[in-house]
Specification:
Blueprint: H1 3-25, H2 34-47, H3 59-65, H4 80-83, H5 90-102, H6 108-138, H7 140-151, H8 154-160, H9 166-185, H10 189-203, H11 212-226, H12 231-257, H13 263-273, H14 281-291, H15 296-314, E1 318-320, E2 323-325, H16 332-340, H17 343-362, H18 369-379, H19 381-399, H20 413-430, H21 434-458, H22 491-505, E3 510-513, H23 520-524, E4 528-530, E5 540-545, H24 546-551, E6 555-556, E7 579-581, E8 585-590
Parallel strand pairs: 2-6, 3-4, 3-5
Antiparallel strand pairs: 1-2, 5-8, 7-8
């Protein structure tokens, strides 16, 4: 296949992904985190004031807000959340965003479409770069197969449409890793600069990508040892790349976003945020930077990093397989990965692992083990680097207490796609007999068809996707909710249901217990009734987000690990929902 035909095929696949992502979002409402990101991002560009949402870096929010600058939107300057709220007040960013999007004479649907389009473009760019990365190191066949896994991934399509940092973080880590490997193999000036710039870019997308620092240290030291390079030369070059990233990327972007943020207000907000922080000298170091005019932008970056680190360490109240906990489970991400990734990919992964185990036994790897490992590392350094990253990211994710969605391990997916694709292509190439080669190709074709069907079949409910092990998309909520299933995306579908159903059953009002970024008052007006499920059973038509329902049904794993109230929806076990809005909102009629 010619190079032109290869890229035409890539373009076609990416257009398929773009279409699926864009069309699936047209009838959805904002998810929980999106409104905060959009309101904050718009305020950064319009006011150069970073008082809102510092626990996430600015780049993705900036990009999402750029199209909004052309819409002549009203900015709620007098809103209390903007005037008196501060970063330590979790509610302030959401109250401000709600006021900005729904109650300032702006068009929420217009804001939704214009802010999500740049995110879908980032998703497409990520797909192209996955292909480029894999093609550079492993060839076209591996790159194409990796791209197929990406393009038809329900999870990537789901989160690639959202104004959140997870897909952008995946692009950031992949780009930074690619440039760092290029620099290691060819440490000329251009590659050192590119490694530094992409490292800085990654730091501006999500704070978890600070894990690139230990990752780069390990792969750099490994490269120096394996290929007998000068330690001091690579140490100096690596430090230079890091400095380039911080000074020429992180500092100027934060400086632009904080230009209108008064030093007095920034210091006051920082002190309030760090009041309960127990990180000792790091806390004092951050305050010292904020007090220094030249370092003020980096001080705000460091503040966000401390906030994100503390949240990961503290955790979040979450439902998982009938249990409720605020401290999480070490096995949360392995199980979520098993259930949220199409089963066909797991089957292929298992086949690859069995074949690798067979080869290791046949080659008697235990004989001259260290020599063989060293030789393999020298010949497969890129694969080794990928495995190191997977180990670091998975270990950190499983050790943390923030168990709120498969999206938090998305940066590991591209390397998983590439490693499985590489092994698959090698297995097929290693088979000599025509019959067995054809059999393997047929098996691969069946698995790919199954994988693609899993994605197409879940349209447009990508966010709620679960594979067959979990009983499919309709039943996945029994395992985990939040951003795995119900993040508030179906509020608009609930409105459509009420409009249609009111003609048949003369329904006027609806009691709603909702979790997400939609505003029930905006969508339903005086037809919306708030109800507090903790006050006991209630009659009428009820619409309940499954996230809220599971929180009211689950059992705390231990009293000390879950301080919230639960059990308040157990009376609903005697009833069955009469309908669903999308996948994530159950509708009951209680007589």
């Amino acid at each position: 296949m010619t190079k032109i035909n290869q890229y035409l095929l890539v373009l076609f696949l990416l257009l398929v992904m773009f279409s699926g992502a864009f069309l699936s979002v047209l009838n959805e409402s904002f998810t929980f985190d999106e409104t905060a990101h959009i309101g904050a991002g718009y305020s950064y560009l319009l006011k150069q004031d970073y008082r809102l949402n510092p626990e996430h870096p600015p780049l993705i929010k900036n990009i999402a807000a750029v199209p909004l600058l052309f819409l002549d939107l009203n900015f709620p300057m007098e809103d209390a959340a903007w005037q008196t709220g501060h970063p330590a007040q979790w509610w302030a960013q959401f109250d401000f965003a709600n006021q900005f999007i729904y109650h300032s004479n702006n068009d929420p649907q217009q804001i939704l479409i214009f802010s999500k389009l740049p995110m879908i473009l980032i998703l497409v760019i990520l797909g192209f770069f996955i292909f480029k990365f894999a093609k550079k190191f492993f060839g076209f066949e591996v790159a194409f197969l990796s791209l197929v896994f990406f393009v038809f991934s329900p999870t990537f399509i789901a989160h690639g449409r959202l104004v959140t940092t997870d897909v952008g973080a995946t692009l950031g880590f992949l780009l930074a890793t690619y440039c760092w490997l290029q620099y290691l193999k060819n440490p000329k000036r251009k590659n050192i600069i590119l490694a530094g710039l992409t490292f800085g870019l990654a730091l501006l997308i999500k704070f978890s990508l600070i894990l690139l620092v230990p990752f780069f240290i390990i792969v750099t030291l490994s490269y120096v040892f394996l290929f007998k390079k000068s330690f001091w030369q690579y140490l100096g070059r690596s430090l230079l790349a890091g400095i380039i990233g911080v000074i020429f990327v992180v500092w100027p972007v934060y400086a632009l976003n904080t230009a209108g943020y008064s030093p007095e207000r920034q210091l006051s907000d920082t002190l309030l945020v760090l009041e309960s922080n127990s990180m000792g000298f790091l806390k004092d170091f951050c305050i010292g930077m904020v007090k220094t005019p030249l370092l003020r932008p980096l001080g705000h970056y460091f503040l966000g990093l401390l906030m994100a680190t503390q949240r990961t360490a503290i955790g979040n109240s979450v439902y998982f397989m009938g249990m409720l906990s605020g401290s999480g489970w070490w096995f949360y991400f392995p199980i979520i990965y098993l259930l949220k990734v199409p089963l066909a990919f797991h089957v292929l992964t298992l086949m690859v692992l069995l074949f690798i185990a067979h080869c290791l036994i046949r080659e008697k790897i235990y004989s001259s083990f260290l020599l063989k490992v060293k030789e393999w590392l020298r010949n497969n350094f890129t694969v080794f680097a990928m495995l190191v990253f997977l180990a670091i990211y998975w270990f950190t994710s499983m050790s943390g207490k923030l168990n709120i969605g498969v999206r938090h391990i998305l940066p590991t997916f591209p390397f998983a796609y590439m490693l499985v694709s590489l092994s698959t292509i090698k297995i097929i190439a290693a088979v000599r007999k025509r019959f067995w080669k054809r059999l393997l190709l047929v098996a691969l074709g069946i698995l790919l068809s199954w994988y693609i069907f899993s994605s197409i079949n879940t349209f447009p409910h990508y966010l709620s996707y679960y594979n067959e092990l979990a009983g499919g998309t309709d039943n996945g909520y029994q395992y985990a909710v939040d951003s795995n299933y119900d993040w508030g995306q179906d509020m608009k579908r609930l409105k459509d249901w009420l409009t249609e159903e009111s003609r048949r059953n003369n329904i006027y009002s609806l009691k709603i217990d909702y979790f997400g970024g939609g505003d029930p008052e905006y969508y339903f007006g005086d037809r919306y009734q708030y109800f507090d499920p903790k006050k006991g059973p209630t009659k009428g038509w009820l619409a309940i987000s499954i996230n809220q329902l599971q929180a009211g049904l689950g059992e705390p794993v231990a009293e000390k690990e879950f301080a919230g109230e639960t059990g308040y929806y157990k009376w609903l076990k005697d009833y069955q929902p009469v309908a669903r809005a999308g996948k994530s909102i159950f509708i009951y009629q209680i007589k």
